[in-house]
C-alpha cells in the first residue's frame, strides 16, 4: 500500500514528529526494491556480490572504489572469507561496515537483500538531512553519491531456539553510505518491529549480533595487528533491541556516523543528537510522494512524470510511543513593533529583511517584497510551511466540580501546510480530568488556520493582512447551560526561525465529557469583519459527542472573537482587504490521547467570499495540486496550474531543495559576521567580540576584556605574598600565597611556629611565607623529627618504625592511619595515649599495653597514672584548623561536545560568569577531573574512546590514552601521587596511570558489571567507586593499589551514578537516579544518612564545603544543595539545553594533606600508590 494521500501523510508526519517522535517505520526507509532500481543479492545463506563504485568510499584513512554486499548484514571493503572465520567476531580480520551482523538467511524465498548506487537529488537530500541533523554544530554537508543496501525480512540461518515459537522471526534494516569529496558517512535505519531477534546460532551456541565498523588487520613492520574498530552494540541483547528505540541523529531508529575523511582521519564519529526532534524533518514534511513506490513484495508501475490531483481524506493515526517535546518555561524574547512617525532613513531596520520601506507624507510603512507576504514587519516566503509554538496557562472548571484544573504552562505546537490550508495542533500534558472536555474546542488552535488559510482569488488570510503581532480574545458559550470559557492569546511575532510565538490563557468553565468520549465536528464557517486595527467574528459550531456507553449527543457552542492589531496608517496597505471575508473550515479531526495526555486537532482552512460564490476547480484553490510543501501553486486557465518553489528554495516545484545562501554569497552577512543557513533563508550572527549595532545588521566591536593580571594593573599584594588570577571578562581574584593570610590585597605572614610544626626536641624559626626546624643540641634529625644519641626505648622504636624513619618536609609529619605512640622526655610511653583521627583516648601501662576499660569517647580524657606516678597534666584536645574558603574555585561540568565552568563565590554559583572552557563538538564527554597542581582538566570520551587533558589556562587538548579502551566513564586525579584512575564500563575494570598516560596498570578487573563514578582520597590512601549493575548495584572501596577491596553499600540502591568525597568532613556522598536520593556516610563508620530526596535523574556530583553540586538529566541543569539544611539552594541551566554529564570542583589551591608518595615519589621509580597503613605500593 502506498502513502498516496497527502492529508494522511502529513497528519502521520505531524503526529509522529511533533507529538510522538516514533520509531521509524519500514515505509520511511530510503526507497528500495526493484522498482527503485535495486539489484537483488542472490538468495543464499552466505552470498557476497561486488559493487564497483562510481565515486570512492572513504573508510577510516583509506579510499575504496568497490565494496562487497553480504547476506549476513554487512558491507565489506574486500571480499570476505568463509563465514565460519568471522561469525560472532567483532572486530573481524577484514574491513567491515556492519549494520547488524549475524548468520542470516535469504534462501527458499525468505527475505531479500537489495542494493544500488544512487545520485538522485531526493535521495541525496534525504541523506544530507539525516547527517546535518545528527551533527548540528558542524558545517552542513551535501553528499554527491550514495549506496543504499536494504536487508528485508531476513531470518536466522538455523531455527531460533530462545523460546520464540516455531515460526522464524524477521529483521529489516537499511544501510546508506553517503559520500562527498572529503568525507563519507554511514546512515543506519532500524524499523519499528524490524529487529525481532538479536542473536543467531554460531557453532551450536547463541551469539549476540553485532553492529559497528572495523578497519581489519593492519600490516606492521614485522607483523600484522588488529586495526581500529568501533562497536555500535555490545555483547548484551538490549543493545541490539535499542537500535530501533534510541538514536544519535534526533530521529528514533536512525543512527549516523562519520566513517572516513580525507586527507587525515582520527576516529569514527557518532551523531551528537540523542534527543527527539521538536518538528517534522523537512524530508518527512513533503506531501508529494517519491517518484517511485516503496517495496511491497511485487512490482508496481508508476509514472514519475505525471502530476496527480489528490483528494484530501483525514483519518486518525495512533503513533507508537508518542511524546511531546517540551518548550522552555522562560518567555521567548520577541520584539513587538509599533509604527511611529519618522522616515525610512532612520527606521529601515524596523522592517523585515524581506521587506522594503516606503516613505509617505505622514510617516513610513513596510511592504513585503514579491514572493513574500505579511504586514512588512514580519514577512514569510509564499508557499513555505509555517509553525507556531507557545505555552498555555490558566484555570478551567469542568462540569460541576468546585475545583479548577490548573494549567501551568503546557506546550502548544502547530504546523500548517500553507499551499493547501491544512493545520495541525498538538497540546501536551492535558490531564484526563480536562482533556475529553476540551475536545470540541478546535478554536484553541483555529487561529493558526485563519492566519495561514488557503486564499481564494481576491481574498487574503490573516497573516498577509496583520502579520504575526496581535492579540486575540475569544468567548465560547456552551449551550444550553451557558458555561463560558475565555481564551486570551498574545501573538508576539515570529522568532529567529520564523516560527510564530504565542502565549495562551484559559479562564472559565466547560461542560464535562466522560473519559473515553470522542467528538466529531461538522464543517463550519466564520464571517470575519475587518476594520481599522480590529477584526471580529462570530460563529455557531455543532458537534457530536460519542459517549463510552455507545450513546451519542449533539451539542453546540457559540464563539465570538476579537483580534486587535496595529497597522500602518500612512499607506494603503489595508485598502485592498475586503471588509468581510469568510473562513470555511472542514475535515475537522479531534483526538485526546489519554495514555500520553495529548490533545490534537486537525482541520482544512480556506478564506473567501462570504456568499460562497462559484466553487473553484483549480487545484491551487482546492489544495489538490501535489506541489512540494516548500512551493507555491500558481493557477492557470481552468484546471491548469504550475508549481513554483518558494523563495529560498530551488527546483521544479514538485521537488524543492533549500538554497544555501551562505555558500552562494559568502559575504552576504558583511564583515565580522557568520552566516548560518536555515531552510528557505539564512541568519547572520556576529563573531566573538562583536555585536549588532543600532541598525541590527552591522556587527560592531564590543568592549574587549582586559586581563589586569597580565597587564599588571591589578591591586593584589606583591607577587612575593599574593597571586592574581584572571577569571574572564575584566575580572580577577586576589589570593594569598601559601604561608600568608589575608584577602589577597593585603597578606600577612603566618607564624607557623605558633602551631608547633617542629619536633618537640627542635627549635622553630619563622621565615617569610615559611619556617625552618632545627634539632637542639644532643639530638639529630631534620627538625621535623629529632632523636638523641642514646639507645632508643621501646616506645621510641615503635614510634620511629611507624613513622618509617624517612625524611620529613618542613610542613610537618606525614599522616599515618596507625596510632603513633606518644613518648615522654625519657623515651617512655606517656600514660595517656590519644588517636588524632578519632579523638578517643585511653591509658597504657609502662609497656604501652592499653589498660582495659579506660578508652573514652571523643572529646573526653581519662585519668591515667603509672604505678609510681601521679595524675598526668590535663591538656586540651587539639582543635583542627579551619581554613577559609580559597578564592578562585570553580565548577567544571561536561556536556556533549564541551566542558563548561561556573565560578564559585563563597559557596554560591556566580552564574553570570559561566562560560565554556573547551569546545569539542565531535566528542561525547562523560567524566571530568581536575589536577589542582598544574591547573589541568582531564576527561573521558566514549566516542573515540580516549582520555584527554587540557590546561584551563590555555593550550590545545592532548590525548593521554587512546588504546585498549572500551567505554571510559568515571575519572579521578591523585594530585599527591600524580596519577589518574578511571573506570571502563565496557572492559569492566578500573585502571591507573601516570598523568601523561604512561605506566598504565589494571588494579581491579573482577566482579564489575557497570562501573561508573570513581573518587580518590589520596591523603588516607583510599579509592571509592560505584557499580550501577541493575541486578546488584553497589559502592565499593579499596586501597589505591586495588588491594583490601570491600563493599561499602549494597542495599537500597538503584542507579548510583555520581560519587564524591569531601576532604574537610571525610564524608562520602552519592546520588542515585533509581532511588531518587542523595546519601552520605563516613566510610570508616558506616553511618549512612539521607541528605536529599525527590531528585529527578542525577548523573555527576561534587562537593565543596557544605554544598553539594550535581548534574541532572531531566532538568538539564547544575543543581546546588546545602548539606546542612538538606535543601536545594540554586540551579544553573546552561544555554545549550542538552544532557549534563560529569562535574568536579576545580580548587584554586590544592586541599591540605600528604601521603607517603608526597616526597621523592615514595622512593618508587614508577607508580607510587598509597595505602592507609603507612606503606606504599610501587608499580
Automatic annotation (TrEMBL):
Task: Give all residue intervals belonging to the Nidogen G2 beta-barrel domain.
Answer: 384-617
Q: Which residues form the Thyroglobulin type-1 domain?
A: 792-864
Listed under GO cellular component are: basement membrane; plasma membrane
| Family matches, as Pfam families | cEGF (PF12662), EGF_3 (PF12947), EGF_CA (PF07645), G2F (PF07474), Ldl_recept_b (PF00058), NIDO (PF06119), Thyroglobulin_1 (PF00086)
Query: Residue span of the signal peptide, if any?
Result: 1-23
Which GO biological process categories is it annotated with? Answer: canonical Wnt signaling pathway; cell-matrix adhesion; epithelial cell differentiation
Q: How is this protein named in the record?
A: Nidogen 1a
| Keyword Signal included in the entry's annotation | yes
**Record's subcellular location:** Secreted, Extracellular space, Extracellular matrix, Basement membrane
* Keyword flag Chloroplast: no
Where in this chain does the record put each NIDO domain? 99-262
What the entry lists under Gene3D superfamilies is as follows:
Green fluorescent protein, Laminin, Thyroglobulin type-1, TolB, C-terminal domain
Show me the LDL-receptor class B repeat boundaries: 935-977, 978-1020, 1021-1065
UniProt keyword terms in alphabetical order: Basement membrane, Calcium, Cell adhesion, Disulfide bond, EGF-like domain, Extracellular matrix, Glycoprotein, Repeat, Secreted, Signal
Molecular function per GO = calcium ion binding; Wnt receptor activity; Wnt-protein binding
Which pairs are disulfide-linked? Answer: 834-841
Ranges for domain EGF-like = 616-657, 658-700, 705-748, 749-787
